[in-house]
Amino acid sequence: QEQLVESGGGLVQPGESLRLSCAASLPMFSAYNMDWYRQAPGKQREMVAAITSGSSTYYSESVEGRFSISRDNAKNTVYLQMNALKPEDTAVYSCHATFVRSFWGKGTLVTVSL
Predict the structure, then answer these.
(1) Rounded Cα distance, 47 and 51, in Å
(2) Which residues contact 81 (CB under 8 A, 6 or more apart)?
(3) Alpha-carbon distance 28 to 66, whole Å?
């Protein structure tokens, strides 16, 4: 059964780092374009980072220079390295996969607070 499972969220202070992981149970994982989205309380979901099957990357303006997306096709896993975290980065972060079909993970909560 296809599924995405996120991990690595938690409570950190401003300026600290976290690395999120998304383990994918997807056949032909390397063919999928993978994205990280986030949704803060009371706000719309937004895409923050994406990596194509060819490993091209994209970042939203709000995280450019602080976040880094990567993938390990041997482990069927995509990562989101988040540095210099800010309180406004607080959100549920979800993994999304697209190749012919689309799949979502359930998300992991990141809280940035003193």
Answers:
(1) 11
(2) 17, 19, 67, 68, 69, 70
(3) 30
User: What type of residue sits at position 65?
Assistant: G
Which residue type sits at 53?
S
Q: For residue 21, count CB atoms less than 10 angstroms from its CB and return exposed for 0-12, middle for 13-18, buried for 19 or more.
A: middle
Please, are residues 106 and 96 in contact by the beta-carbon 8 Å criterion?
Answer: no
Ordered per-residue pLDDT tens for the chain, 114 residues: 889 999 999 999 999 999 999 999 999 999 999 999 999 999 999 999 999 999 999 999 999 999 999 999 999 999 999 999 999 999 999 999 999 999 999 999 999 999
Beta bridge partners of residue 94, listed in sequence order: 37
Q: Which two tokens stand for residue 17?
A: 């780092």
Evaluate whether 103 touches 2 at the Cβ level (below 8 Å): yes
